[in-house]
Amino acid sequence: MGLLRMATRTAVVAGTATAVSGRVAHRQAAKYDQQAQQQYAQQQAAAAPPPPAEDEQTAKLKQLADLHSQGVLSDEEFAAAKAKVLGI
Length: 88
Description:
By secondary structure, the protein is mostly helical. Helices cover about 85% and strands about 0% of the residues. It has three helices and no strands.
Protein backbone atom coordinates (compact mmCIF):
# COMPACT_ATOMS: atom_id res chain seq x y z
CA MET A 1 0.00 0.00 0.00
CA GLY A 2 2.88 2.40 0.69
CA LEU A 3 4.09 2.22 -2.89
CA LEU A 4 0.64 3.01 -4.30
CA ARG A 5 0.25 5.96 -1.93
CA MET A 6 3.68 7.36 -2.93
CA ALA A 7 2.87 6.97 -6.64
CA THR A 8 -0.46 8.78 -6.14
CA ARG A 9 1.20 11.62 -4.24
CA THR A 10 3.84 11.99 -6.98
CA ALA A 11 1.12 12.12 -9.64
CA VAL A 12 -0.78 14.81 -7.74
CA VAL A 13 2.35 16.92 -7.23
CA ALA A 14 3.36 16.54 -10.88
CA GLY A 15 -0.15 17.43 -12.07
CA THR A 16 -0.24 20.53 -9.87
CA ALA A 17 3.18 21.64 -11.09
CA THR A 18 2.11 21.20 -14.69
CA ALA A 19 -1.05 23.23 -14.15
CA VAL A 20 0.83 26.05 -12.43
CA SER A 21 3.56 26.22 -15.06
CA GLY A 22 0.93 26.22 -17.81
CA ARG A 23 -0.86 29.14 -16.15
CA VAL A 24 2.39 31.09 -15.80
CA ALA A 25 3.26 30.47 -19.44
CA HIS A 26 -0.20 31.64 -20.51
CA ARG A 27 0.11 34.86 -18.48
CA GLN A 28 3.55 35.59 -19.89
CA ALA A 29 2.33 35.04 -23.45
CA ALA A 30 -0.59 37.41 -22.86
CA LYS A 31 1.79 40.02 -21.41
CA TYR A 32 4.12 39.80 -24.41
CA ASP A 33 1.19 40.03 -26.83
CA GLN A 34 -0.02 43.19 -25.11
CA GLN A 35 3.45 44.74 -25.27
CA ALA A 36 3.74 43.90 -28.96
CA GLN A 37 0.36 45.54 -29.65
CA GLN A 38 1.41 48.69 -27.80
CA GLN A 39 4.66 48.90 -29.76
CA TYR A 40 2.78 48.45 -33.03
CA ALA A 41 0.34 51.22 -32.10
CA GLN A 42 3.23 53.54 -31.23
CA GLN A 43 4.92 52.81 -34.55
CA GLN A 44 1.71 53.52 -36.43
CA ALA A 45 1.23 56.80 -34.57
CA ALA A 46 4.81 57.84 -35.37
CA ALA A 47 4.27 57.13 -39.06
CA ALA A 48 1.19 59.38 -39.25
CA PRO A 49 1.36 62.30 -41.71
CA PRO A 50 2.22 65.75 -40.34
CA PRO A 51 -0.65 67.98 -39.24
CA PRO A 52 -2.19 70.37 -41.78
CA ALA A 53 -0.79 73.44 -39.96
CA GLU A 54 2.13 73.44 -42.40
CA ASP A 55 -0.31 73.97 -45.26
CA GLU A 56 -1.57 77.14 -43.60
CA GLN A 57 2.01 78.30 -43.13
CA THR A 58 2.77 77.65 -46.78
CA ALA A 59 -0.32 79.56 -47.90
CA LYS A 60 0.62 82.55 -45.74
CA LEU A 61 4.18 82.53 -47.07
CA LYS A 62 2.90 82.43 -50.67
CA GLN A 63 0.57 85.33 -49.92
CA LEU A 64 3.46 87.32 -48.44
CA ALA A 65 5.64 86.49 -51.45
CA ASP A 66 2.91 87.72 -53.78
CA LEU A 67 2.59 90.97 -51.85
CA HIS A 68 6.37 91.37 -51.93
CA SER A 69 6.56 90.76 -55.68
CA GLN A 70 3.77 93.30 -56.26
CA GLY A 71 5.75 95.88 -54.31
CA VAL A 72 3.24 96.16 -51.48
CA LEU A 73 5.84 94.90 -48.96
CA SER A 74 9.42 96.09 -48.80
CA ASP A 75 12.29 93.64 -48.33
CA GLU A 76 12.44 94.41 -44.62
CA GLU A 77 8.66 94.07 -44.14
CA PHE A 78 8.65 90.80 -46.06
CA ALA A 79 11.54 89.39 -43.99
CA ALA A 80 9.84 90.40 -40.73
CA ALA A 81 6.47 88.94 -41.75
CA LYS A 82 8.12 85.73 -42.95
CA ALA A 83 9.99 85.35 -39.67
CA LYS A 84 6.74 85.88 -37.76
CA VAL A 85 4.93 83.19 -39.78
CA LEU A 86 7.81 80.73 -39.32
CA GLY A 87 8.05 81.52 -35.63
CA ILE A 88 11.67 82.60 -35.83
